[in-house]
User: Fold these one by one.
Assistant:
Number 1:
Amino acid sequence: MKALVFQGPGQTSWQDVPDPDLKDAADAVIRVDAVTICGTDLHIIKGDVPEVTPGTVLGHEAVGEVVEVGSEVRTVRPGDRVLVSCIAACGRCVFCRENRYGQCRGGGGWVLGHLIDGTQAEYVRVPFADLSVHPLPGAVTSEDAVLLADIFPTGYEVGVLNGRVRPGDTVVVVGAGPIGLATIATAQLYSPGRIIAVDLAESRLQAARDMGADATVGADEGPEALVEDLTEGLGADVVVEAVGVPEAFEQCTRMVRPGGHVANVGVHGRPAALHLEELWIKDVTITTGLVDTHSTPMLLRMMAAGRLPAASAMVTHRFELGQMEEAYDVFARATDTGALKVVLGGPRHDEVSVPA
Ligand SMILES: NC(=O)c1ccc[n+]([C@@H]2O[C@H](COP(=O)([O-])OP(=O)(O)OC[C@H]3O[C@@H](n4cnc5c(N)ncnc54)[C@H](O)[C@@H]3O)[C@@H](O)[C@H]2O)c1
Ligand SMILES: [Zn+2]
Ligand SMILES: [Zn+2]
């Protein structure tokens, strides 16, 4: 089969590799029908995730059809259409028993496209299939469903739930990339009073308004002053960091009100300053987290019911699976191309409509 293989920092190739086989009785092999690229894949290619070794197939988000299952798999069968979650779960370890699948100690967690071969391929082997793939309701298209493999559960669990968004709250989301936009979309499930999006790129602020943000402001145009004005000097109830740089995290801690929550979602490669000399007196809660994807079944039900209408607006570019290198190029140059999510359809896809 063909797959996108990481060859070391700065190098990938779309090339022939052996078809994946079942390695364990709990595995399934999935034919990939829709797959997307994540900002984290770009971090890997840059060399920021050194545990990814050359030769690994990238990708941790996909929709496809089950072609083969091991003898222990009970919940899916060949022919089933499934969502492949970015997080696998053994279901047995102490963390899986607490729904903290991201922290799985039994061989799950974020393994696809990281520690084992991933989804940017014609076929993928998924470990612990019973807990790591989700059968898809017919009403959900592959293109929409693939957004639930990572970005929607991440924005919802690590942003909205950790940030404890409540009705009437002022919610600030710093960073309006796919993760920030998914946070904006799912925060609305809790009827906040207003959502303010902060980013450096005007195209991303426009996307935030399209996704339901009430106000937007450039990160370098004084978001602190705007939040202060809008909240009569109190600060925001919830501030979500969806960038992953120290400046953004520090800005979040300047915008939160006493008693408020700062939910960090961004993946940080450098230390950020924690200004305890200012924060200690404010009763502030700061959370961190890797997505667990425990919310994926709920998000799928909402999507099937038409309650996540904005999701598909996030797909800006569509490609055939074989155009992987072109898709990476468009995604990596998001500022020029306006790319948010690029979706690639496999040879047997029926719902990713690739323009001729
Ligand atoms: N915690 C998790 O489980 C988890 C899961 C997936 C992704 N992530 C992380 O979430 C972050 C966001 O992901 P994404 O795919 O949306 O990334 P992205 O790069 O597409 O979006 C980041 C956005 O932040 C903006 N930005 C950059 N510097 C800024 C600044 N100083 N202030 C305000 N905005 C700024 C950019 O213009 C961009 O729109 C990344 O760090 C990613 O690795 C975390
Ligand atoms: Zn991802
Ligand atoms: Zn586990």
Number 2:
Amino acid sequence: MSATLRIIAVAVLATSVVIVRAADQAAPTASLASIPRAARIATIDIKDFLYAPRTLTIAAGTTVTWRNRDAEPHTVRGADELIRSGALDQDETYSVRFDKPGTYRYGCSIHPQMAGTIVVQ
Ligand SMILES: [Cu+2]
């Protein structure tokens, strides 16, 4: 390969790397609408008798999973059947998919001081 060809080959390779990097960086700015429904997930930890985060804002279609990190059992109960877990022992989970926009308040039926809110946009 001549010196000129070698320089051209290196230039083409370098350009390819730049294009791939630009595509990678564009991904995080994708709008919510372009994310497949199946990919919309969120997690709430139950720890130290608190739901964390206490208020969670999500897009419609998101599945929320609560995980009990405490040794004590907890529940996740809303005003109706949509949010109605049984007692969750340590490391047990409970999931609900939220399809309708609105504000959903819930709490623990065992410990009335525990409260959380899901805002579905
Ligand atoms: Cu509880």
